[in-house]
C-alpha cells in the first residue's frame, strides 16, 4: 500500500487554549494511539490534503521534528460541520506483526454481459473493511464483474483472499447488475409481440 509522509511537531500542552491556538495558526491537533502511550502532535492542515481528500487508502509515516518516526493509519477525523475545516485527527500506530483494521476502496474490473445487454451496474459497497497485517493491506479490492448477467449480484465471498479477512457478513452484496427500465420495457414488448404472434397462429 502507498504511504504518505506527514511532518509534525510533538505537542507539549494539550489543553483547550493550546489546541485553539494551534487551529488559529493553521495546524491540526492529532493523537497517535496503539503504542505504549498516546503521542500528541500537530501538523499543518495542508499536510493532510492527499490523505483526507482522496478516495484512495494510504498508510502514513509520521515524522516529528524531534526525530521520532511512526508508521500509522488514519483512524478517525473530526471536521467542522459548516466550514469542513479539519478539527482533529486520530491515528493508529502500525506494527509489522500486528493486524490492523482499515477501509479499502473497491475497484470494478471486467465487463459484465448484463451491462452490455442494457443492465445498470450498481456499486453497493464503495469501501470494504478488512483486517490484515500492514504488509498485506491492498491498495484496492478488485470486484470482477465479468460473470454478472442481468439481475446477478456479486457477493463478498467471491472476493476472499488469503492475505486479509473481511469484516462483513458473507451475504454482503458488493455490486449488482439491475435491469434498467428500458431493458424491462423492451422485454415486456418482446413478450407481448411473441404472445400476439402465437395468437395469430
Automatic annotation (TrEMBL):
GO terms for MF: 5S rRNA binding; structural constituent of ribosome
Domain Large ribosomal subunit protein bL25 beta as annotated: residue spans: 99-179
Presence of the UniProt keyword Disulfide bond in the record: no
Lineage top rank: taxon: Bacteria
Keywords, in A-Z order: Ribonucleoprotein, Ribosomal protein, RNA-binding, rRNA-binding
Biological process per Gene Ontology, one example term: translation
Domain named Large ribosomal subunit protein bL25 L25: residues: 6-91
CDD domains: Ribosomal_L25_TL5_CTC
Any single Gene Ontology cellular-component annotation: cytosolic large ribosomal subunit
Family to which this protein belongs: Belongs to the bacterial ribosomal protein bL25 family. CTC subfamily.
Function: This is one of the proteins that binds to the 5S RNA in the ribosome where it forms part of the central protuberance.
NCBIfam families: bL25_bact_ctc, PRK05618.2-2
Complexes and interactors: Part of the 50S ribosomal subunit; part of the 5S rRNA/L5/L18/L25 subcomplex. Contacts the 5S rRNA. Binds to the 5S rRNA independently of L5 and L18.
Protein name: Large ribosomal subunit protein bL25
Species of origin: Flavobacterium terrae
Lineage: Bacteria, Pseudomonadati, Bacteroidota, Flavobacteriia, Flavobacteriales
